[in-house]
Amino acid sequence: MSGHRLTVEVSPLVRIDDSTTALSMVLSRAADDANGSDFSFGTVMGYINFAGDWRYGVTSTRLIDTAKGRAWTSVSTMSKERLDIKPGQSVTTYVAFGAVDSDSVTVLVPQTGFVTVDVISRDEVSRTGIDLKAMETAVKDDKPVTEQAAASPIEINSRTVDGSLGARTGDKDVTIVMASDVTFAPDSADLAAAAEAQLQTVAGQIAQYPDGGTLTIVGHTDDVQDDAYNQALSEKRANAVKTRLGQLTGLDKWNPSVAGKGESEPRVSGTTDEARAANRRVEITLTPTGGTGSSTKRGGLGNGAGSATPSAQASSGGASLPEAKGPVGKGTEGVTVKRSDGSGRLTISLDHVTRAGGYLLGEVKVVAVDGDTSASDWFHDIDSGGIFSNSRNEDSASVQYTLSSACDGLAVVAGGMQILPADYVPGGKDTHWPLADFNLAEKLQAGTAMTVAVVWPDPGGDTITVDHQSIKKGNGSYAYRLTDIPVKDS
């Protein structure tokens, strides 16, 4: 963990009362830890940001219900639990969550991996060795973040490998973003030839919901022309998309609406060419009558055939992988990456992923070749809108610092799509958090290692390829690819 040898024992999840559950976690540091320096493990197993939300301990632990597509964020604060553990020492700590109605959950243990545990009543604690009194005292003495107690639906974030189309799937709707630079000729509402593949993919997505619902199509422009010109162009483009979709698939059971927003709702702030390109877009929102469905049928950018996974049936068009901009190797063998000046070498590998429900659980291994090397840039989304943005270009206080060094950019590539780590919106927050490790900025010393835990929607198949590539920036910064990674059943 962050270059230190630490083992973590996780207890069953205990229902302390009707509104609170808790885990006991025993953290043991190896006596022969090669990196014997003093270290506060609470600084990497918790999370902090610049908005004053300083939570240490093991507060970045998450619970996952892979069967129903739900995640729980810890309600613990642990503001004083820095977890200073010396080599050879062990510490027992407790982390609390809201009510959990499942019989078992998968625990994402920060920089350690995944373990599935039973959910038990307090009457069953005696058979486990858990110190219930100590657990209750720790939970009572902590100040809970009650707005984060409820489970959050797990959502999906995917995009075409060329960046022309992206989809975000929640439990109620699917939002598809079409890049206008691909869909239309410049300053025109005439559909370009390349738009046909985009619209075929969208039509396939619509077909996954035969009962229909609400279909909203909104055009957006950049700020180059005047307001009136941009407003008119955005409306014409939205109407052009609606017309062609109606020709490609039946919309009889859908209630479509079309609007233009001109330049009034930019996706990315700024006047750079990159920002303006991101703002030229058409957004399509599908709100199916019955919602997007449970974890047994939810839409990514699908091909209309239905899905046995939560998200990720990929479009059949453009299935070939883009040219790799960095090193490529089998997941079991790994690749060695380095910064542009040749320093900061790391070896990154993934020997398998585990299928659980409609998700894939991965534990990526990182070993430092050189000293004083951070792994975060090799996992964060390098196409995000800014240093404090996540992979959805959301930028706010709840993303800052901790999530800016999170694993939100390592994607499964399937059927021409990048399937980014699954994510969710915790209670009381306005941005998505990845179901993956957060604090990856800690610098590793030569020969030391860390584990990066990450959850992806399952695209199916016996093997996967994962990619960390820049779509928008068109360069090889922090790019690499791992192929032929076996998928094992849990």
Characteristic terms for this protein:
60s Ribosomal Protein L30, Chain: A, Immunoglobulin-like, 3 domains, 16-stranded mixed beta sheet, 9-stranded mixed beta sheet, 27 strands, flagellum, Flagellar motor protein MotB
What does this structure look like?
The protein has 490 residues and is mainly beta. It has six helices and 27 strands. The protein has a 16-stranded mixed β-sheet that branches. One of its GO terms (cellular component) is cell outer membrane.
The gist of it:
With 490 residues, the protein is mostly beta strands.
Beta-sheet strand percentage? 25-35%
Distance between the termini: 24 Å
- CATH class of the largest domain, named Mainly Beta
Shape: globular
- The CATH topology of the largest domain comes to Immunoglobulin-like
Q: What's the architecture of the largest domain in CATH terms?
A: Sandwich
The biggest sheet, with number of strands, parallel, antiparallel or mixed sense and barrel status, is:
16 strands, mixed
- What is the count of DSSP helices, taking H or I runs of 4+ residues? 6
User: Number of DSSP strands?
Assistant: 27
* Helix content, binned percent: 10-25%
Arithmetic mean pLDDT: 86
Low-confidence stretches: 294-299, 302-318
Number of domains: 3
Alpha-beta classification: mainly beta
Rg from alpha-carbon coordinates: 23 Å
Protein name: Flagellar motor protein MotB
GO cellular component, one term: cell outer membrane
Keywords: Cell outer membrane, Cell projection, Cilium, Flagellum, Membrane
Subcellular location: Cell outer membrane
